[in-house]
Amino acid sequence: MTRGIAIAVLGLMLAGLQYRFWIGDGGVYETGKQRAAVAAREADNGRLRLRNAALEAEVEDLRAGGAAIETHARETLGMVRREETFFLVVNADLAMAARH
Fold first, then answer.
1. pTM above 0.85, yes or no
2. Which of 44, 52, 79, 92 is the Cys-Cys partner for 73 at CB 3.0 to 4.6 Å?
C-alpha cells in the first residue's frame, strides 16, 4: 500500500517536472520561441547595418566632393549645365497610347 502511494507520488512529481521542462517558464517551448525572435532581430539588424553603411558612404561622398552633389542634383532636380544641351527622348508608342 505505501509502496503504491510512493510510486504515485513519484509519478506526479515526474509529471510536474516534465511539464516545467517542456511547457513551463523557461522551458523548451519558450526557449525555442525566444531563439526564433532573436534570429529575426539579428536578420533585421544585418539589413539595417547594410543600409546604414550605404547612407554613411553617401553622406561622406556629399561632404567630400561636388561630384556626388552634382549627381544628386541631376537625378532628382533635373540639373543641366549651361554648356550642355538638353534632349528629351519620347517613345512614340507611349506618346500614342497617352493620346488615346
1. no
2. 79
CB contact at 8 A, 70 and 79: yes
Q: Which of 38, 72, 68, 57 shows the shortest CA–CA distance to 49?
A: 57
The helix-helix angle for 2-22 and 28-64 (nearest 10°) equals 10
d(CA 47, CA 23): 33
pLDDT tens track for 54-75: 999 888 877 887 777 788 888 8
Which element (helix H / strand E) includes 11? Answer: helix 2-22
